[in-house]
Amino acid sequence: xxxxxxxxxxxxxxxxxxxxxxxxxxxxxxxxxxxxxxxxxxxxxxxxxxxxxxxxxxxxxxxxxxxxxxxxxxxxxxxxxxxxxxxxxxxxxxxxxxxxxxxxxxxxxxxxxxxxxxxxxxxxxxxxxxxxxxxxxxxx
Length: 140
Fold this sequence. Notes:
single chain, mainly alpha, Methane Monooxygenase Hydroxylase, Chain G, domain 1, 72% helix, 0% strand
């Protein structure tokens, strides 16, 4: 097996792992309550896999320049990578829509809660707020 085939096989493995990570991301984003730390770990893992994929793509291009002949074995591997990449692009776009929906729901929840939040404890003059403004303040 030549170097280009090895690189393409490694790319396929990384794309499969990326699919698993993006499925986990979709599951988190679809849940009623998002676990922030789990989503952070998923994002870090996704970034790491994408960096590895970028490195392998650079290696593939260099190896392809060296091996200039089109090989059927290489062509079939490249077809698999192209199809997986298209699927992952679609999945990533769907996850982005889910994330936007979560952000919108969070914003709506904040807007509902905003009128009910307690007033600040201190006013602009540094004194505490009193509920009945007509009362007298007694100092000792």
